[in-house]
Amino acid sequence: MRKNIITDSTLISTYIQGKESSLEILIKRHQQRLFSFIYSKVQDKDITEDIFQETFIKVIRTLKKGNYNEEGKFLPWVMRIAHNLVIDYFRKINRMPSFKTTDDFDIFSVLSDGNLNAEKQIIKEQIYTDVRELVEELPQEQKEVLIMRMYKDMSFKEISENTGVSINTALGRMRYALINMRKLIEKHKIILVN
Fold first, then answer.
1. What's the pLDDT tens digit per position in 122-181?
2. How large is the angle between the packed helices 8-16 and 45-65, nearest 10 degrees?
3. Average pLDDT value over all residues in the chain
């Protein structure tokens, strides 16, 4: 069997059994796609390199522990690890990528003004807490999409891949989540102060 037709799952099995070179083949096979994916998010070669290395350290640890069970879905699994590390990177530097919502009602826009005095800062934090609590009241499917979109800055394509539903379903859930948030804000009489 030639190297280029060995499946990912076979390579994973042989690596787990102790054949180190199998991992090398896996990394080479997917490095271009993974590197491009990370770079498209962070736009910096050195940081991309770091996150790429970190991704494979996590992959190796998981495989060595015997915790890998996503038969035949190696690349999506590795991409998910990389995506989470990108989010961690943005959290670390406290610069989450900005998001745009197309709905005319954007409760999160009141949370993004950096030039607030101490009193307004406290009000802002209270609103943020209130909003977070309201999010918890949403139906599970809507809550999941809203958190992925607003707090994790995932695209609807990524949300669709992560939840296993179509992009249209994810968009629909987001729309209903915003409608429900509006109702909950009125019900709880939360005043969104600018």
1. 666 666 677 777 788 888 888 888 888 877 788 888 888 888 888 888 888 888 888 888
2. 60
3. 78
Q: Give ∠ CA 37-41-46 in degrees, rounded to 5.
A: 85
Give residue 112's pLDDT: 47
Regarding predicted confidence, which is higher, 116 or 32? Answer: 32
Q: How far apart, in whole angstroms, are the C-alpha atoms of residue 85 and residue 21? A: 25
Judge whether residue 31 has pLDDT over 80. Answer: yes
* Cα 149 from Cα 103, distance rounded (Å): 13
Backbone angles phi, psi at 181, to 5 degrees: -60, -40
> What are the distances in angstroms from CA 54 to CA 28, 30, 64, 72?
16, 15, 15, 22
Query: 157 phi and psi, to 5 degrees?
Result: -65, -45
Residue matched to tokens 């991309």: 48
Beta strands of the chain (E only): which ranges? Answer: none
Q: Flag whether the pTM goes above 0.85.
A: no
Tokens representing 16 are: 């787990």
Half-sphere exposure of residue 149: CA atoms within 13 angstroms, side-chain side: 26
Residues 6+ apart with CB under 8 A from 190: 127, 130, 131, 134
Which domains, and CATH codes, for the chain?
A: 3-92 (1.10.1740.10), 107-187 (1.10.10.10)
Q: Note whether 42 and 48 are within 8 A (CB).
A: yes
